[in-house]
């Protein structure tokens, strides 16, 4: 079952996409097949990184992009699923990605210049995490100090940053000169930006590691996103839209492995295996249902995030954790069905497992996301609001 076949039965759940938009997804799917055939081996990190960036540019120049209007987030979510079905490393092969923060919050002239660059395939990274812990963004210490002519000078260190060597700029979360958390755009070619590349155990497609800012000058009139002190708001609004895209990519990867395992089992049956055991059939059926259900939830979350629904952030946090967990569990359950062959380092199953492990941390570590969701679901303490438990007690009395 190829990746598009997973989407076909979901058409009626995505009324925002018309026939042209579905045809564009089909063309995108075909292009992915062609390009992916030429992918360098994952072990060759340098070749792989430049191939991925080249792929992004090639897809952009061939016009593979989401339509404008309400179909945009739906198309992008499904495109991420199709990309993930080939390889989780393709998670940034189309779309604005983290550049969406620039398009939404940068001054108009800066946003418009970046729109052209992103449309042409350039990539923007995000630098938020620090040594004190990525799950505590409120505690960041990267500091901007006021300098001559109203410039800001940035000093600090960001860690575990993805797209480290490929991004043309980074949306960087800092403390502004008044100590508030703000988001600024930092050009990647500034000589005061230092990078330390670290070898990851999965998700090795893009460069990954440490980004140091050494008294790096920026002009806040151009580089500041939103207003001073709006960093947290920008972060949360962005991740409400971005996390469903990450989730769809992970689910695509699980669907890709599902298809591969199903093909191998079908080939064994056709080659004369007396029967496919029930445990294999049950796993195929259950994981198909789980991946489909999670994808439908993800589409809903993308839709709500684009509409600015007040619950979108909550659904995106919980949906990312639960959706990526679903994908990781599906691959874990499917892997043994084809035996040791899938344990070879070069096998797509081995790669998918290692890559998905990275997504358990990237874009929000899962215990933190679930915990933060739990806090939201509990609501804030309301001393004056009669509790439901109290009213139940009164009724019984
Ligand atoms: C492949 C990959 C790509 C990434 N890409 C980027 C990127 O592009 N840009 C970027 O900025 N970051 C990136 N990250 C970092 C990622 O966002 C962080 O790993 C994530 O936010 C968790 O932060 P942390 O690793 O520092 O863990 P921590 O925040 O240190 O959390 C580790 C554990 O400690 C727990 N914990 C936190 N506080 C407490 C407490 N008070 N008591 C007890 N336990 C606690 C957490 O819940 C968690 O279980 C990436 C990470 C990976 C693995």
Automatic annotation (TrEMBL):
Its cofactor is FAD. The keyword Ligase does not apply. GO terms for cellular component: cytoplasm. Pfam families: Acyl-CoA_dh_1 (PF00441), Acyl-CoA_dh_M (PF02770). GO terms for molecular function: medium-chain fatty acyl-CoA dehydrogenase activity. InterPro entries: Acyl-CoA_dehydrogenase, Acyl-CoA_Oxase/DH_mid-dom, Acyl-CoA_Oxase/DH_mid-dom_sf, AcylCo_DH-like_C, AcylCo_DH/oxidase_C, AcylCoA_DH/oxidase_NM_dom_sf. Residues 229-356 form the Acyl-CoA dehydrogenase/oxidase C-terminal domain. GO terms for biological process: medium-chain fatty acid catabolic process. Keywords: FAD, Flavoprotein, Oxidoreductase. Residues 126-215 form the Acyl-CoA oxidase/dehydrogenase middle domain. The keyword Acyltransferase does not apply. SUPFAM superfamilies: Acyl-CoA dehydrogenase C-terminal domain-like, Acyl-CoA dehydrogenase NM domain-like. Transmembrane segments: none annotated. PANTHER family: MEDIUM-CHAIN SPECIFIC ACYL-COA DEHYDROGENASE, MITOCHONDRIAL, MEDIUM-CHAIN SPECIFIC ACYL-COA DEHYDROGENASE, MITOCHONDRIAL-RELATED. Belongs to the acyl-CoA dehydrogenase family. This is Acyl-CoA dehydrogenase. The lineage of its organism: Bacteria, Bacillati, Actinomycetota, Actinomycetes, Micromonosporales.
